[in-house]
């Protein structure tokens, strides 16, 4: 199971830290992903992290502002989001695959003044 937490309403330029609780599978040997879906748009890949966190990857739209990380001991995935923009408004999901076919309940992030 996967469940994302930590969304909310934030002003442009602000920060949020999303968390994802993972259980029921081998989290420590699974690449993990953050995806998002903005209103009226398709699901979009945001970031990936390798099994032990040695390598991370980001969409160009968030590179330099977002940081993905993980704690294998506790089955937790994070997404630190800084300098948020209105276009970051979306439902954010953590997932076991880049296409988001296996993803949990999302968390709403709204960036607005």
In short:
This protein is mainly beta and 113 residues long. The protein contains no helices and ten strands. The chain has a six-stranded mixed beta sheet, with no helix packed on it.
**Total beta-strand segments:** 10
Radius of gyration: 13 Å
Cross-sheet strand order for the largest sheet: 2-10-9-4-5-6
From the helix content, strand content and strand pairing, which structural class follows?
A: mainly beta
The fraction of residues in strands falls at over 45%
Distance between the termini: 34 Å
Mean pLDDT: 96
Which regions contain 5 or more consecutive residues with pLDDT less than 50? none
Estimate the global geometry from the Cα principal axes. globular
Order of helices and strands: EEEEEEEEEE
Helix content: under 10%
Figure out the total of helices.
0
Q: Summarize the main sheet.
A: 6 strands, mixed
Features:
mainly beta, 6-stranded mixed β-sheet, 113 residues, 4-stranded antiparallel β-sheet
